[in-house]
Structures are given as structure tokens and as C-alpha cells.
Design brief:
Elements: E1 12-16, E2 31-35, H1 42-45, E3 64-72, H2 78-93, E4 98-102, E5 106-113, H3 115-121, E6 129-132, E7 135-138, H4 142-149, E8 173-178, E9 219-224, H5 245-254, E10 258-263, E11 266-271, E12 279-284, E13 286-287, E14 290-292, H6 293-306, E15 310-313, E16 315-316, H7 329-339, E17 343-347, E18 366-371, E19 375-378, E20 381-383, E21 387-389, E22 394-395, E23 405-409, H8 420-424, H9 433-436, E24 440-443, H10 451-460, E25 465-469, E26 479-481, E27 485-488, H11 490-502, E28 507-510, E29 514-517, E30 524-525, E31 545-548, E32 552-555, E33 574-577, H12 580-597, H13 603-612, E34 625-626, H14 634-637, E35 652-653, H15 658-667, H16 672-678, E36 705-707, E37 716-724, E38 731-738, E39 743-748, E40 751-754, E41 760-769, E42 778-785, E43 790-797
Parallel strand pairs: 8-12, 8-15, 9-12, 15-17, 17-18, 18-31, 22-26, 23-24, 24-25, 25-27, 30-34, 36-43
Antiparallel strand pairs: 1-2, 3-5, 3-6, 4-5, 7-14, 7-16, 10-11, 13-14, 19-29, 20-21, 20-28, 23-28, 32-33, 35-37, 37-41, 38-40, 38-42, 39-41, 42-43
Helix pairs in contact: 5-12, 6-7, 12-13
Length: 800
């Protein structure tokens, strides 16, 4: 698997056999390395492909690959000439300097430059920014059935409407920017599909292991992009997915129905994507070296001219390396995609539950958090005289049902001179192998270290099994293949440790995994899901929405790079993965279904429909909670869990206009001249509002509200505008306000009467603190209803 280790607390030497994504392409021997920074690399236990945000030019001013961003592309005029002249001057100095050139929707290029050259180029007119090429990380089926039936409150549908959205999407094209695709998967069959839409302008590239016949009426296009470090390696430069992540994502968004899907017999049923009728366009931007920002921008540029409707990106930067929008390739590409009518959906990141970790937080992006579904994978611990403790993991081991295996707490196996804390956490070189051999070992997990390192350590010492004490793994089952290992809660650990300490010869066994369906409560916010507020602009409430991201079954690559390590030999056609990577394509699929129903809708209308119809209730009719049981807030799930039933008929939408986005850039600190380069839709006479400041961002017409600096008892006034999309005829909406103690929220008017489709009406909200100081951010909502449709906008208010 591919992994990068970040966020250190101590230096620990770990012997790792690099069965990484790199080794899927080339052989790499086992190696020993000392790492001083590490965190859970969830590519193995989840779906996060950890890559450091490094590049040939990152980490200060030095030579390497730089992205030269020149705003919106135009077919004619000064910007196109400036692009050509600047690029020509670079190529004259160094023939192999060019990495990518951007000419569709986006203007600019990526090139190998010296630090001095980069600085000089940044001073040219028409250049918005010059920055080092970053490398991004991947944020790594019952889920759709759960969304349809699990928590939705059904509404009356018109006789001509179709509540089963999966029959739609025939001419909608979803672009997947990821690790490629495995086209032979049954999920991508084009049986009974109509001809390719005439709007499609893309291509199906040829590669050593990929040709035009691998595309069909389902996969209608495929491109690949080598990063700066890949050169012309034909093994890498292919749309074929050697990792699995891209295949999993694509099938979640738009895979057809495949009966009999399972992961080695687990989670069996019919696999299907959110929009089975939609077409897929593949843009392979990630290689063994990471997902280069320069490749991401190239894919955005191609996707804009190819004619996609939705773009889905399950990747982003780590929280420690967030950049301003004009130096963030995803934010840049998404801006120009949205300006060209494309809805862009991105994962929020896997660095939760810490606050201010949400990535992809630009207002023109639909940012997706992750939740659990009502399916759990049980691997129970049996001890003493057949007492049972519930465990959660995926393992295919069979060491018997009876508790006959010796049991030991890792702390009791501490090696002489080792730290006791290291030992009980099963850290390398901390335990005595003689005490471990032949036993089941109980390991703590104080520092949230990846469980695979603990598994490898105890297994190498001769243990026959392991029990991990970890409250954070609920709903996110780690996979241990054929090694008997499971996770239990700290509460249950008290019981088994009491037994161990009171018994001369404690014994236990670990049972192979079984599936528990209709689990309650569900959904809950996944522990790993990144949280708000945004560290770039807190006046936009992020994430926007939540969707299933834990234990998701979807199609998988048939690449056999790891076959030698798999005792079962058989490569699975489907795999269970977790991460906001998995949540993102759920929303992409839903967006495609909405776009199919309403082809003329703007990206902001699609976003609003998804957000304002979301659910905040679980399958026990209680409020959504975080994975450890606390009541969740909008910083956890945005507007709530997506509703596949209601999103197709939102009644009203908040349309965020081009002017809203231009004003956002003003409020964020950009001047008029820079904005005119960035956007091709700046109207004549446009000027940044006077006294532009960040607090004014709260006034852009977004489907949620974030308002701050509510100090003393001074009020803040916010305006929102709603558009009727429910059809003609008179209809009146009344407002319901859910406000927290300490804050008065008033809305005027309290009724909105619409008389025709497309009509827009505005209302004003006044936030007034009733206490001298708001010590924490407070949450509530404003809902408009006409007894058929409920249009809800969440808000957050704070004093700082």
C-alpha cells in the first residue's frame, strides 16, 4: 500500500516491508527506516493515500517545478498572447522546461524553473501567481440503499416525477480525477446504454496497457498525466488503475448494478453507483509519486473542453499545508470549471476529529464529509468461559471458537530497558518476543498509530493474534487479512483486563468477521472525517454536506502486484474501503442525477438542492452524533447527510452567482485588476465593494451562513435570496428558526409568496447576542416550508 507518515510525537524505528503503491509499479525491497513523524496512514485501514505535500520546488525558494497561473483562458486577446510569449521565453532558456500547458478554461503552464526565474515571471503583467508544484494526497454496497431508506422522510411526489433517480443520468458525464480505472470491471459495462452524448469532446488515450477498446458507452473517455517525477515512464503513463482507489471511486459514483458483489463473501449483495446511467470520463492524475498539482490543473483544463458535467476529486492537501486559493491547483481548477457550468465535488479530508482540518474549502466547491452506514463488521473476542466482547475488524483467520489461546497484556511483555508506555502500545523494540510468542496480545492505542504497524510487530514476535483497544475505530473496520486481530472499546477492555489480572492462565480466541446489518445508530460522523471551520475562510461554513464514507463496498482493480502476499490468492473484484474519498463520489453521483433531471441548473443550484434537503436525523429518529457519541454540529457534517429522495425536488434554491464569487474574492483581499485576470465573467463597471473585508463574505448567497465578530450586543444583518424551482402557481413559504441560547435570530419577512417558476425573493436575518460575549461558536438553522418542501439553511455564529 502507499503511505506517508505525518504528525509526529516521538521518534520510533519501524521495520516496514514497502508493499506500497510504488511497489505496485516497481519492485522495492524491504527496508528499515527511522521516522520521527507519523500518524495513521489510512490508505490501509481506510482510503487515505497519504502523500507529503512536497515537490521539486516546495519548502522555500529553490529550483524545481513551478505553476505559473495566468487566470482565465481566452481564445483571443492579450491574455493568450501573454501566455504564448511567456511560455516561449521559458522554452528558449531550457528546452525540456515545460511540464504542462493550460489553455482551456485556465491559462498558464507548469515548468522547471530556477527560483530566480520563478520570481521574475511572477512580476509579469497577466500573471496571477507563481508557486511550487504541490503534491496532494488521496482521501482514502449497501450505502445507496441505506441513503434511500435509512433516514429519509419521504415527501409527496408529483405524478410525473420519478423517485428512483437511478434510472436517470443517461447524458450526464462525471469526470473522475484519481488513480485511473480498471475498465474490465463489471461495474463499467455499457450493456443497453445509449450512444455517447453528442456533447462529448474528449478522447480515449492509448497506452502500453490501455487502448480505445477499453472505452465504451460507459467509460467514454480516459486520459493520463505524468507528474514531473515520472518522465515518460510508459508503465506509469496510463489510465489503467494499478492502485484501486480510482476504480472504487468511479464505481461508487456511477457503477451499474452488479448482483452478487462482496469482499471475499463479506457485505454480499448488489453493488451499484449513485448514478448508474451516467457516463464516466477518467483523468488519471495520481502516480506512485503522488497527485501533482500541475497534473490536476491539466486535467481540469482538459475536462472543461471535453464537456463533463460533474467533476469528482477524492484528494486534497493536508491541514498543515493549506494554501491561499490562487496557489491551490484544486481551488483554481474548480473555479474555472464552475465558471464553465461544471459542478465540482471534493472530499473534505481524513484528519478529523481535530477542528480546522477541512480541506477543499473554496465556496465554489461542494465539500463532503464522511459518515457511517448501518453495517458493521464484527470480529468478537471470546475469553474465560465463553464470555464475549464485541470487536470490529475484517479478518479471515480461523483459530477456533473456543478460548484456548494464552492471553497477555503487552505491558506485561515489556523488554528490559524499554518504556512501559511503548510496550503497552505495542511499539517496535519494546516487547520481549519470548513472552509474546504463541499468545494473543492486547495493545493500547494512545497515539492513534496505524494498527498495521502494531499487527506487524506482534506477528513478527510470534503472536497468534492481537486485540487493539481503540474507541476511534467504530464504524471503520481495519482489515487484517488472515491474521486474527480486532478492535474493542476501552470500556470493554476494562472487563477483559480484569479477567487477565485475576486469572493465572488467561485464555481467549478471536472470531473471524461476520456482518451486522441494520446497525443503530446510523449514520454517525466518521471519526477520521475532517472538521470545520475552514482555516482559509471561516465565513464560509465548511464542510458543506456529509455522505457515507465508512466501510464502503465498490469495484476494485484486478492488478496483481500484491498477489504474492495474499494467501487467498484470489484478487477481489470488490473491496471495502473507508475515507472521505468514499463519501465524495456518493455526492458526485447524486449531483449527476439532479443534473440529469434539471440540465439547465447551475452548479450552485445543484449544490443548494443537495444541502437544503439534507437530514440531521439518524435511524433512531435522534440527532446525528459523532462516532464517539457526542451530538454532531455543522462543523462535522455541514448541512447534514445527503437525502437521495428529497434532493431531486428542493422547492427553492440559493443560487450563488458569478458576482457573489467575484465579491468573495474582493472580500478575501484580491484587487479588481487581479480578479479581472482570474475571471472571464467580470461585467463592465464591476468594482470591489468599498471597505471589502472578510466579515462581508457572510453575505454571499450561500446555502449556509457563517457570521462572526458578534461582540457585546451589536447585531449583524445578513441577506439571502431564494429562487423558486418547484414550478408555477402561487405558493407561500413560512420561516422556522432554530436558534441557540444566547443568540436572538430574527428573519424579515417571515413569509415568502412565489407566483411563478424562477422567481427570486430575498429575506434578511439579524443576529443579536443576548450575552456580553459568545465564548464558543453556536449553531442553528433557518427553514422555509410550504408544507410540501422544507428548505433548510444551517448557520454558525461566533464572537471571535
Amino acid at each position: 500500500m502507499w503511505a506517508h507518515l505525518v504528525s509526529a510525537k516521538r521518534t520510533i524505528t519501524i521495520k516496514i516491508s514497502w508493499i506500497t503503491t510504488t511497489s505496485m509499479y516497481r519492485h522495492h525491497p524491504a527496508t528499515s527506516t527511522t521516522i520521527s513523524t507519523y500518524e495513521e496512514p489510512k490508505m490501509i485501514s481506510g482510503a487515505l493515500w497519504r502523500m507529503s505535500l512536497e515537490s521539486g520546488a516546495a519548502g522555500g525558494e529553490k529550483d524545481g517545478v513551478y505553476i505559473v497561473y495566468m487566470g482565465a483562458a481566452t481564445e483571443h486577446g492579450s491574455s493568450k498572447n501573454e501566455h504564448a510569449q511567456l511560455l516561449s521565453s521559458v522554452l528558449k532558456r531550457r528546452k525540456n522546461a515545460l511540464v504542462h500547458s493550460y489553455e482551456h478554461g485556465i491559462s498558464g503552464f507548469a515548468a522547471r524553473l530556477s527560483a530566480a526565474e520563478a520570481k521574475s515571471i511572477s512580476k509579469n503583467p497577466g500573471v496571477v501567481s507563481v508557486f511550487p508544484d504541490p503534491v496532494y494526497q488521496l482521501h482514502t454496497t449497501r450505502s445507496w440503499d441505506f441513503l434511500k431508506y435509512g433516514t429519509d422522510v419521504k415527501i409527496d411526489l408529483s405524478p410525473n416525477s420519478d423517485s428512483n433517480l437511478s434510472s436517470r443520468g443517461n447524458d450526464v458525464i462525471i469526470g473522475i480525477l484519481d488513480t485511473g480505472i480498471w475498465p474490465e470491471s463489471k461495474s463499467f459495462s455499457d450493456k443497453d446504454m445509449d450512444p455517447i452524448p453528442s456533447s462529448w469532446n474528449g478522447t480515449c488515450v492509448k497506452a502500453q496497457d490501455f487502448n480505445s477498446s477499453n472505452c465504451n458507452r460507459k467509460i467514454i473517455g480516459a486520459r493520463s498525466y505524468n507528474g514531473p517525477e515520472d518522465d515518460d515512464d510508459e508503465i506509469v503513463n496510463t489510465p489503467r488503475d494499478m492502485n484501486g482507489h480510482g476504480t472504487h471511486v468511479a464505481s461508487t459514483a456511477a457503477g451499474i448494478m452488479v448482483p452478487g458483489a462482496s469482499y471475499h463473501g463479506l457485505a454480499s449483495g448488489t453493488a451499484k453507483g449513485g448514478s448508474p446511467g451516467s457516463r464516466i470520463a477518467v483523468y488519471r492524475i495520481c502516480t506512485p509519486y503522488g497527485c501533482a498539482g500541475s497534473s490536476i490543473l491539466a486535467a481540469f483544463s482538459d475536462a472543461i473542453t471535453d464537456g463533463v458535467d460533474i467533476l469528482s476529486l477524492s484528494l486534497g492537501s493536508p491541514a498543515s499545508r493549506f494554501s491561499d486559493f490562487k496557489e491551490d491547483p484544486i481551488a483554481i481548477g474548480a473555479f474555472h470549471a464552475v465558471e464553465n457550468g461544471i459542478t465540482v465535488v471534493c472530499s473534505a479530508g481524513n484528519e478529523g476529529p481535530s477542528e480546522k482540518t477541512v480541506s477543499n474549502a473554496a465556496p465554489w466547491i461542494l465539500t463532503v464529509a464522511a459518515t457511517t452506514i448501518d453495517r458493521r463488521f464484527r470480529s468478537n473476542v471470546v475469553f474465560d468461559k465463553n464470555k464475549v466482547i464485541k470487536g470490529e475488524a475484517i479478518n479471515f483467520a480461523n483459530i477456533g471458537k473456543s478460548p484456548v489461546h494464552p492471553l497477555i497484556y503487552a505491558k506485561s511483555a515489556k523488554k528490559a530497558g524499554a518504556d512501559e508506555r511503548d510496550a503497552r502500545n505495542c511499539y517496535p523494540d519494546s516487547m520481549d518476543g519470548k513472552k509474546i510468542k504463541g499468545k494473543i496480545v492486547i495493545c493500547d492505542n494512545d497515539e492513534d498509530i496505524n494498527s498495521y504497524y502494531k499487527m506487524n510487530e506482534v506477528r513478527n514476535l510470534g503472536a497468534i493474534g492481537a486485540v487493539l483497544v481503540d474507541d476511534k475505530k467504530r464504524g471503520d473496520a481495519s482489515e487484517f487479512d488472515e491474521f486474527p486481530m480486532t478492535s474493542i472499546s476501552s470500556r470493554d477492555a476494562v472487563e477483559i483486563l480484569a479477567y487477565l489480572n485475576s486469572t493465572k492462565n488467561p485464555v481467549a480466541t478471536i472470531l473471524p468477521t461476520t456482518v451486522v446489518s441494520q446497525y443503530k445508530p446510523a449514520p454517525t460522523v466518521s471519526y477520521f472525517s475532517s472538521r470545520g471551520p475552514s482555516s482559509i475562510s471561516r465565513n464560509i461554513l465548511k464542510p458543506d454536506i456529509a455522505a457515507p464514507g465508512s466501510n464502503i463496498l465498490a469495484a476494485w482493480t484486478a492488478y496483481n502486484g500484491d498477489a504474492a502476499t495474499d494467501k487467498r490468492k484470489q484478487i477481489p473484484k470488490f473491496k471495502i474501503m473507508s475515507g472521505t474519498s468514499m463519501a465524495c463520489p456518493h455526492v458526485s453521483g447524486l449531483a449527476a442525477e439532479i443534473k440529469s433531471r434539471y440540465p439547465s441548473w447551475s452548479p450552485s443550484a445543484v449544490k443548494s438542492a443537495i444541502m437544503t434537503t439534507a437530514s440531521q436525523i439518524n435511524n433512531m429518529k435522534g440527532p446525528l452524533t459523532a462516532e464517539l457519541g457526542a451530538i454532531a454540529t455543522a462543523y462535522d457534517y455541514g448541512a447534514g447527510e445527503i437525502s437521495t429522495n428529497r434532493a431531486s425536488q428542493p422547492g427553492l434554491v440559493y443560487e450563488t452567482t458569478a458576482i457573489d464569487y467575484l465579491n468573495f474574492l474582493c472580500y478575501h483581499g484580491y484587487n479588481k485588476s487581479t480578479i479581472k485576470v482570474i475571471s472571464k465573467k467580470v461585467p463592465a463597471g464591476f468594482a470591489c465593494p468599498k471597505e471589502s473585508k472578510a466579515d462581508l463574505i457572510s453575505n454571499i448567497n450561500y446555502p449556509s451562513i457563517a457570521v462572526f465578530n458578534l461582540t457585546g450586543k451589536h447585531s449583524r444583518s445578513i441577506t439571502r435570496t431564494l429562487t423558486n424551482v418547484a414550478g408555477g402557481g402561487n405558493t407561500t413559504y413560512s420561516v422556522t428558526i432554530e436558534a441557540p441560547t444566547g443568540l436572538t435570530v430574527t428573519v424579515s419577512p417571515t413569509r415568502l409568496q412565489f407566483t411563478k417558476n424562477g422567481q427570486r425573493l430575498s429575506y434578511h436575518i439579524i443576529f443579536t447576542p443576548t450575552v456580553s460575549s459568545l465564548h464558543k461558536d453556536m449553531f442553528g438553522s433557518i427553514t422555509w416550508t410550504n408544507k410540501k418542501f422544507n428548505v433548510r439553511a444551517p448557520f454558525v455564529a461566533g464572537g471571535r
